[in-house]
Structure formats: structure tokens, C-alpha cells
Amino acid sequence: MNFLTIGHRGVMGVEPENTLRSFVAAQEAGLDAIELDLHLSKDGALVVMHDTDVDRTTDGTGPIAEKTLAELRALDAGRGERVPVFEEVLEAVHTPLQAEIKDAQAARALAEVMNRRGLADRVEVSSFHDEAIAEIKPLVPGVRTALIASRYGTDIVDRAVQAGAETVCLNIRRLTLEIVERARKADLRIIGWVVNTQDQLRLVRAFGLDGATTDHPDIKRTGRFTA
């Protein structure tokens, strides 16, 4: 199986994260998939941003959930980029996507878009929240899902299986051989994050992971030669 390289919020190491500019750069770099984050605006738009508020990544302040799409559009998301909505990303790139949802409400909004546009083959849905994964499973026939974890133990495998996930996306700083072996026995695909250095790349390849999420596009090139 090929080792997958997934662009973290596009290529956030070189472009403003979660912007169309960043996603296009990830595609041009040849990354196998692009990860992005989804929240709902005050008026129900499925907007692409990581944090619950706009403070860190734009020139505005305040929670996303308290702003309309028009208000979010007025913000600078870096280098003059605007906060995109999910469907704009679908039009801007053709690379497969990994869409991270923050809650069950966002899951339902994403499910509506995926069903309307037939995206089950193109978009994998991920979340730190077991209930968000479980929520979208019955809503989108054939959807592939991934459970993300930062602080975790061997229980992450049981949680993923119970939620119906096919993949676990794991913080490489807590990764152990025992967890990898348990995940394999459960037929789970394993993605490591965030892999930005050659030492980190060698680590995930030594563990035999299926892929890595990275901030830097050159991991795609060097990953082919690192075993």
C-alpha cells in the first residue's frame, strides 16, 4: 500500500491555514489528500476554520458561531485570503479531502452536502469526538470515517471500533507499538500527525503507519525514500 501524505489545513507550514490558497498549494505539491476543519456560522454556513473563534487566524475577534457568513467573509484570513465555505474548497481542488467536524450539528450539515453532491468516495470525515463520527455514519451511506486522538491509550482502538471508524489519526508523540498492533488487529488504518521532520517521518515509517499528516509539502517527496 502506498504511504499517504495528507496536507494539514492545506500546507499550513507555508501558506495561511484553511484557505483556498493553502489547499491549491497542497494539490500542486502532489499531496495525496487535504485535511480541513469545519464549523457552522451563526446562519448555518459550513465554514472552513480550525478554532472556535476567529482571533488566531484572522484580523477579527470572537466566536465563529456568533458571526454570520457575511461577517466572516469580511475578515482577512491571511495574505488577503477570505474564510472559505466547504463547497468552495470542493470546486477549488479535486484532491481527496479529510474533513474534520467539531460536533454533531456540523456532522448533519456536512452530511447534507455530501449526499447532495455524492461525496462519499472523495471525502473522509474525521473528528476528535466519537459521537460526531457515530452521528454521520448512518446519514451518509458508504462514508469513511476517522477518529482523531491527541492524548490516548490503547482504549483508542475500542473507541474507534465502537464509533464505526475505519481509521485512527494519532498524535505521534504518544504512539506505541502496542497501540499500532492493536489497531492492526482491529483492521484499522493508522495515520500519524503532525509529521514535519525527517526524524518524525522515519518514526512513522518504522511503525509501518499508512500515512502522515504534515504542514510541509516536501514530506511527500522525501516520504517515498524513507523506510
From TrEMBL:
It is an enzyme of class 3 (hydrolase). Gene3D superfamilies: Phosphatidylinositol (PI) phosphodiesterase. InterPro entries: GP_PDE_dom, PLC-like_Pdiesterase_TIM-brl. Residues 3-224 form the GP-PDE domain. Its EC number is 3.1.4.46. GO terms for molecular function: glycerophosphodiester phosphodiesterase activity. Keywords: Hydrolase. It holds the Pfam family GDPD. PROSITE patterns: GP_PDE. SUPFAM superfamilies: PLC-like phosphodiesterases (SSF51695). GO terms for biological process: lipid metabolic process. This is Glycerophosphoryl diester phosphodiesterase. It comes from Streptomyces paradoxus. The lineage of its organism: Bacteria, Bacillati, Actinomycetota, Actinomycetes, Kitasatosporales.
